Amino acid sequence: MSVNEIQIERSTRASNIAAILGVLLLVAFVSMPWWGERSGQRLLTEFLYTVALAQMWNLLAGYGGLLSVGQQAFVGLGAYVLVALGLHAGINPFLVIPLAGLVAGLIAIPTAAVLFRLRGAYFAVGTWVVAEVFRLLISNSSSWGGGSGLSVTQTVRDIPVWWRDSLTLWCAVALGASATLLVYWLLRSRHGLALTAVRDSEPAASSLGVSVQRIKWFVYIVSAVGCGMVGALIFITKLRVSPEAAFSLDWTTVMLFVVVIGGIGTVEGPIVGTLVYFVLRELLSNYGSWYLIALGLIAILFMLWIPRGIWGLMSARFDLRCFPVQRRLRLDEEAKR
Amino acid sequence: MTAAIDTLLQGLLLGGLYALFATGLALSFGVMRMINIAHGDFAILSAFLAVAVVAGLGLNPFVVMILVVPAMALLGYGLQRLVLNRTLGKDIMPPLLVTFGCSIVIQNLLQEIFSADTRSLDAGSLGTDSLALGGGVAVGVLPLLIMASAVAVLAALQYLFARTRLGRAFRAASDDATTAQLMGIDNKHVYGVAMAIAMAVVALAGFYLALRANVSPSEGPARLIYAFEAVIIGGLGSLWGTLAGGMVLGVAQSVGLRLDPGWGILSGHLAFLAILVLRPNGLFPKTRDR
What we know:
Chain A is mainly alpha-helical. Chain A has 17 helices and 4 strands.
């Protein structure tokens, strides 16, 4: 049988439909300032940056095998880059966003050098210590507003409200979509095979010539860049930065919850998880702490009984893949004979 | 000079409390190879339980401790058998995420029941008594008692591990769970007992914490981090190492605090990171992280 008779399929019917739907959705999102309400626009902004954060955590934990409970370190750094460059240096806040990613990525390098001495669960708590160190360092320096924080309203004062809201939304669309597409593209590329190999078994991957350590460095830094950019954007919407809020463990809690519910190690999972998270939040918003208790319990139940998350369950049952990363071999009729 | 010695002594004694927090964590990692992210929250839970029972029944705090510690041990056994054992395996993620969920649930339950206010236990005269060591240096009786308890707990555990059947089962299950099972060890029960002990010790730590200072429902994660730092500084798998780790952490924190009120906790973290860079396996490593 000749090579021509075997075809490698990389797309599915679901993925073709999803691609069309995705483009339509993106057009709808980007044009929302012309047809949507401000409150809806805000909610969509929040939805999209949550997707971006969740994708970053998914890349780190779901593919790189690096369990971090300290990603708030980079969200917080992004927020404080906004203070330094937006408030103190007077740079347009929306231009600060990529710079925040750059700074977070640069700081991630020495951080990784120290943290990679720890493995597994110890690495997880180590990332948390690093986030605490950043928080305490900033709390102790008065030029950054100290423990009580400061207002960054100054940075957006000269931008008309319509432009401010629209630019915020567009940045959120860009971050949410590019985080998703980046993970998707990475997984379909040559590096994707290495990444999934590391996810499935580190020793096996390294025995096949995958440099596990290099993958981990790469994933850690990419995730830091993403979280840093989202951090700057989040605090453009909040307009007040304090160490408690910027370096809050809640950021990581949300990422973790979303990814676990949606399906860890899948591109679709973080999107599905964010949808579920927003629905739950609307339903339970009147119950105060009980809302968080419910989220904690749901995460525990999922981990115990549905460890692959909603998307994992659906894609196994219906063979549904909107972002297909696998290669399928299809033999032509002739070859079968 | 006196101030320097005083700071050093305070720090060393604080290490006793940190060692109590760290022991349970070291034990559960040593035997089950899992980290309980809710470890600190369980300490705070037992502190609040003790506060509630003291307030409700008007008993002496130490009598209440005798009730709370076994109750927490029982909770630990149940939690391990019913929930955590299901999560154990090659993947470290399930136990980590499940206990992370527990942490959020406990923190918010405490907040809902007790409000966000800080609470403490009244230690009576014990809280203020001190022993004069001469030269103007004095140490509190309560910190000394805590240090003595930490040493006693560690000595007891050391004996348990080295000399008893249960300790042998612990070591066997830790080294090779499958083979241990072939030799007739009921791993699930062994893990349950290990978690019960871990929980009893951390309950004691939470009780002492509430005697020494005010505790708030959201304090658990901070306590977990100190415990974790003490374990890593001391070296994985070394019981006495946790005491050394706790002391290093305690001294770093009290020296930092002396220099600047904002630097106490931060210098503890920095000492931890410095040790991680200089001696990644801690001061007294025994087992290797697999």
